[in-house]
Specification:
By secondary structure, the protein is of the alpha+beta class. It contains 3 helices and 3 strands. A hairpin with a 2-residue loop joins β2 and β3. α1 crosses α2.
Length: 63
């Protein structure tokens, strides 16, 4: 378990997305986050869970 909290820039870099996309997901409540005052922070464990839950499995079609 990694309980490190990442700021928006660090989390966006970790997910390989733009900060604007991450802010949009926060606004849409698509991704777990922590709000401390005006700061938006992300648990690395929550980011890993988000990636795991949004990973598409390969579908094998019959030939």
């Amino acid at each position: 378990m990694n309980n490190a909290l990442l700021n928006v820039q660090e989390a966006a870099s970790y997910l390989h997305i733009s900060t604007s996309t991450l802010y949009r997901w926060v606004h849409q409540k698509k991704i777990k986050h922590v709000k401390i005052g005006s700061r938006v922070l992300f648990s690395q464990d929550d980011l890993n869970e988000f990636v795991k839950n949004n990973t598409c499995s390969e579908i094998k079609l019959p030939i």
